[in-house]
Amino acid sequence: MTDDVMTNPRTEMPPAKSAYGDLVRIAYFVLPGRGKRVYRLAIARRIVDTSARGARDRSAVGHARRRTRVLRRALRPSRRLQIGLGPWLRALPARLPDPALTAALSKLEPHVRLAYVLRTVEGLPRYAVRDQLIELRVRDPWSAIRAAEAVEVPPLRREDRFEPALLRPVRNRSVLPLATAALLTVALAAALVLTERSGPPEASARVLRLVAAAPDAWTRGARTLDAWPARGDLARDRAFTGRAAGAWAAVPGGRRAGGGTAQLLFAGHLDGAALAVMRSGGLLARYASGRLDVVTAGADPSAPIALGGGRYLLAPWETRPETLAGQRLAVSDGVTVPVRPGTGCGRGPLFHLGSRTVGDLGGPRGTVLTYHSPAHRPGADRPARLGQTAREFWNRLACATPRPAPAVSEALAFDFWSGRLPHGGPSADWVCTRLTYAGGDTAAFATLLGAEDVATGACDARRPVSGTWWRAPSRRRYYVAAAGRGLVPHADGVRRPTTRNRLLVATGAPDGPVRLTAR
Fold it and tell me: What string of DSSP letters covers 204-235?
């Protein structure tokens, strides 16, 4: 359940241009089998019609819950849905979905078909598809997503395209209560957005509706971002939140909240200035001093949100954060006291949340930091609280890590080789840093940490190996390479290579190509 922050119950509109039609389209393509399209569409509409549970389904959170109910029934439809289909068969539109696409999707595994529909047909981002699959208890969502992205199906034919916006709920007393049917019919009137009569003068004709989860929503269901309540002393200030919503509604399309609805996460005073934080899908908007910033932050349910000034908004279930020294970190209304990394670059470890250590890598949300020492053996990589050695290492590495453009949910530092560089060189560490972005994508790069920090290209955190040309104190240049525990580096394109303690040293032409492998 959600509480409206900026709404008029008599003029509420759906969270999308046609919430009902979108749900019908999803249910139709997710349904298994190759039956006639007329029966398939009738069953899809019946599933959607019988999934309504009151007026709250029109909110952003309610719409997401209703979509989950629809998908759960469409994946495993009951045979009873085929009985008494008359009202839905009589209400079919003139144009039916494309038969070639329907037949192609019916050949896919259920979870792959579901992922394809959400990712390709509906155009949801990967993290949103993953969250939906997890909600439906799919054990390996990323495998299903990757398989769906590899599927090639015929495109829709223009003359036979599916137009769900033309659909309306079927009024049937025995299945859909008249009150719910009336509400859904009104919700389909047009692709309008809410204009609140009591809203601030700054709001234009395109006004964003803000919703907020109930304060105890996270205790009664899944721990998702949708369950974060709105916190802050201005959360009930409609004038201020209205200005924030109006500012987001006025930004260009690619950065605008989807569906005309956004979730309010925070509205309050920080250091004497008013700040509002809103989200829509993977977008996060910050409104302060009349200025709005929109960034991609993902839908990680537990990653703290940076509010500025060293303060972070925590998930409502994170009740006992600790400083890096193990002391209780003061929190008020979900907001930490100012806490900053102990580094000159402003990036590095921040505080502990349970078994995790959260750090700042320059993104809009906190990043879970993990560390593997040179003695690490491959195995289960579970986030663990960083000890002093790991924190000191991350303090150094964080400043050598480029500030990432997308939000990073987790960062692994694998110090896969530590020792002294040859020919009088200094002590050094070779680290493979793997970043996991908010959307689920990953990137890994190697860095040689010595007297100077040198980026040495891409790496594989499971089988790390990296090399680079390096200038010794004698001013001579050598090719040096190192590999992880149990591996030996091999280089082609160099001269007189020697390997000792997993460190390869060679000479050659610095401008020539080198092929490096680990065996």
Answer: -SS-PEEEEE-TTGGGSS--SGGGPBPBSTTT
